[in-house]
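Exercise 3.2. Students should predict the tertiary structure of the chain below and write it as structure tokens, then compare their answer with the key that follows.

Predict this chain's 3D structure.
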Amino acid sequence: MTPSIFKQLNNQNGSILVTVLTVLSILLTIFVFALTYTLTRYSFHTKDKNNFIATHLSEAGIQNGVNKLNNNNFVSNYKYKTENNGTISVSKELWGPFYLISSIGQFANQKIKTTSIIGSYPDSIFSDAITACDERYPFIVAGNTRIFGNVNTGLLGMETGQIRGEAVTSKQYHQGKINIHQDLSTPLIDTTVLDGYFNEMLSRKSNCKTFESASLYLNKSSDDLFKKSNAIEIENNLEMNHFFFESNSEIHSLFVNGFVEIKNSCKISSLLEIIAEGPIYIKDSSVLDNVILYSKDSIIIEDDATFSGIAIAHKKIIVKDKAKLLYPSMLLLLPLEKKEHTENGIYLTSKNQLETICYLSNNKEDSTYMRDVIYLDTVSTIVGAVISNQLVDLRGSVYGSIVTEQFKYEQPPTTYIHWAKSLYVNRTVFDLNFGLPMFQYNRNFQRHNIIRHAKESL
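Answer key:
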């Protein structure tokens, strides 16, 4: 009996040992899991905290750069340390008629880059509905004209008239003040900024390391498109079909010696500049955001395309069909010296609402030379600003401000100079912060305006 008792005790001791080891193993597993979880949570918390601080540092760098622009002392790129041992690096480039400020905030092992497009803060004339600058004629309105907001004119003021018997149809055609001024003038694009951009653009082209010896066809996503270089020169034409591209922290460039066609639902959200010798077409349901299109010919935005960027051309910019312009888009026409008697300009006939800044320049030293026009069709509506150093013919609705050298209304065989018929402009319901380009007025005292932000982790 005694040996069997000892054997039974040994079996019990073995079972207890296994149980104890199992319990210890479970406790150890729980401890390791809890420790790992705690360390992971702590790591994520630290990373989030550092990321949060780096983000604020990058935003502070943008504001610091804007302050330097306001004080006219942003001379070169710079870097500085903060009290919490972070660093901020700030750089400035040009993006069309705007500044492009980039700020990298670094704290511990986290880096955040913020890129901002900077324009000019609106001058006081953009608080009013209309500024008609030509002092040689009175500003005359006829038809179903409705103006909500103040009107600035030359010494001859604003009057009503008749076009083929159609006088102003409402006694309340104007609700606001008429301000009489001497020496009114339309704001001029700051040539130091715009010419500086063109020089930077040419520098990117001269340093281009990739050359396509024929036409380039881009289909779907092309992640390796800019693998060798951020700039590509194309000998002939560029066609984009279902193309997708996104990058908001670096400038990428496509230099095209022919025409450009962007179609079949392309989606581009990027600091991408497309520079073409020929016309640029945006078709179908393509969406372009934050890009610069520059054509030495014309730009046509049509079908159901959506554009939110900067379009610069020398001949015509046309927005038609059901195309959309979304804030902060800008249409900029820079007419070249031309011998042929053709009217170039910005032609808006889209049935969709157009959120944009339209700007028509005058390349002539003689400001009385005016042939080109911003035309707004009766089916079209602008939300934003219309600025013309030449003519405007506005038959649709404008929610915002009109600043022009001269109005024109043409009803063949007669052209009515400084007349507007059935003009509708409403400044009172418009509270959008204008994303205006850099102008020449008050350069030494100009306030700058942050138009849009983009953030990226490095």
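Discussion points: The mean pLDDT is 88. DSSP finds two helices and 32 strands in the chain.
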